[in-house]
Specification:
Blueprint lengths: L2 E6 L5 E12 L4 E6 L6 E6 L7 E4 L4 E6 L13 H8 L5 H10 L7 E7 L2 E6 L4 E4 L3 E5 L9 H16 L5 H8 L17 H6 L10 E12 L3 E10 L2 E11 L3
Length: 254
């Protein structure tokens, strides 16, 4: 997962609105979103290489999502970062205790950002900066540095999401997919310098990424209203082309 735009606790109808993209190599085997057979409370896609995930929610309302930290000099960790999401979604720990343990074990993973908690309260943790933050109400964006880093895709995604949700009480998932499938590359003078070279920085700068071997594999829209009704829609892509949609609706079990 390389981009998570979200709006929390500041809308008349929804307590949480998420529009996110997962970027990955096209050849990495993946299952689309589903309720897992081995953990039936979890709704998420699944990485079939390491059996973790990048974004998911449980029937009880635990939510978590992950992005990688972009640094070509970082070594791989002992464990796959997708394990963090699975561990939280199967844990009975409150977010603060889970994150305390994760801080202790942070060097076991390559660089990451994790967003976790519930639709009522979300926390962000980055193991490179080793910072835990409770997210304030409003619109936020997370890519591959830390929360709300002003990369072009984060700035554009936040603005477009905020403008749409603040002007509309009824949220149309199709409009949120329009936001995260914006494939316009950023201007050269706006590109960050993360050590991957100017050409790759440009290719990675859109919200929706398309390169010959790597790009946006799926987009997810998650809506949680004030009555705890869930709308979860995932669209999957094959080398940039729409492939399929999975849609789920249910009410959280409290």
């Amino acid at each position: 997962m390389c981009l998570i735009n979200f709006h929390i606790n500041n809308h008349p109808r929804y307590k949480l609105i998420i529009a996110a993209n997962r970027d990955e190599f096209y050849q990495r085997p993946t299952d689309p979103a589903h309720f897992w057979e081995d953990h039936p409370a979890i709704l998420a896609g699944r990485d079939l290489l390491q059996m973790g995930t990048w974004l998911g929610i449980t029937k009880q309302g635990q939510f978590a999502a992950l992005t990688n930290f972009r640094d070509p000099e970082m070594q791989d960790g002992t464990y796959s970062r997708g394990k963090i999401i699975t561990d939280y979604l199967t844990s009975s720990l409150v977010p603060e205790d889970f994150l305390h343990n994760l801080q202790r074990d942070r060097k076991e993973f390559a660089g990451f950002n994790v967003l976790l908690g519930s639709p009522d309260q979300l926390f962000h943790y980055n193991n490179v900066y080793n910072e835990v933050t409770e997210l304030s109400p409003g619109t936020h964006g997370l890519s591959n540095d830390t929360m709300n880093t002003p990369w072009p895709k984060v700035v554009k995604g936040k603005k477009n999401l905020r403008d749409y949700v603040m002007e509309n009480e009824c949220i149309d998932p199709d409009r949120l997919f329009d936001i995260v499938t914006d494939a316009e590359e950023a201007a050269e003078n706006e590109l960050p310098d993360t050590g991957v070279g100017a050409e790759l920085e440009r290719k990675l700068s859109p919200l929706f990424i398309q390169t010959p071997e790597y790009g946006t594999r799926s987009s997810t829209v998650l809506l949680v209203d004030h009555q705890d009704n869930i709308t979860f829609v995932e669209r999957t892509y094959q080398q940039g082309d729409y492939a399929a949609e999975q849609r789920f609706s249910f009410q959280l079990e409290r």
